[in-house]
Amino acid sequence: MTYLTSNQLKQYEDEGFVSPINIFSKEKAKEIRSEIELIEKDMPEELEKSGRYNAHLISPLLDEVTHNSKILDAVESLIGKNILVCGTTLFIKNPNEKGFVSYHQDAKYIGLEPYNWVTAWVAITDSNEKNGCMKMWSGSHRDNLKDHDQMFNEGNLLTRGQTINNVPKEKLKSLILKAGQMSLHHPTVVHGSQLNKSNDRRIGFVIQSYIGTDVKQVLGKNSVQLARGIDDFKYHKKIGRPKSLMNDNDLKIKEEENKNLQEIFYKGSSKKGTY
Predict the structure, then answer these.
(1) Element housing 38 (H / E)
(2) What is the assigned CATH class of domain 6-265?
(3) Is residue 191 classed as helix, strand or coil in its secondary structure?
(4) Which of 124, 170, 228, 237 could cysteine-pair with 83, CB 3.0–4.6 Å?
């Protein structure tokens, strides 16, 4: 068992995140990257734009990461032993592309209440200052949800380009991760990331999110996987795990889940973005 230490729990409580946490080897990270790039090669549009959601439903290796016992141990330390996987997202920044993530709070548009959930950001490649690692506004999770402008701006990897203005730079902390490490962050901590100025891709696989079985989806519906424990609440429909890479049936499930997700993310918006 690799539960979080008292120091890690204190960091999460004080700052709204804990990082870095060692999960798997660089060799394993390379294997996962290869599978992602194989999907991109064989089915060029499958992971494009809003297709980046729920890739764990069509990739056995990404599914394996999602159900990794070290990750689940750490998550259990924060939300308890009954854990559901509510979805995943690939955040890929290619070199020389204008991809960035504006400062935002996950809880603003995701519809998961109460906030007994946590997001895991798993580094498939190194993530650092040069290639646009995540930056967290330390302690911002202790405040209420902030106002977000809907920018729909070019290069913004968020659905609506949701943006919190006037984020204090002196309170930002960079989460430097080696391939195979992860960070965990609270639903209401303010975070974002800048451009990739390196000559290689920056790939993050994000389990967004691990939720307690007591958490409801209040903006729509999406299916879940039972990752650990038991689900006495039964608020969500359950889906299985992929049996093989890019299986036809799994591709259909992913497509359906992503349609549901779009309805959640754009609830109440008169405009729709590309993500």
Answers:
(1) helix 26-42
(2) mainly beta
(3) strand
(4) 228
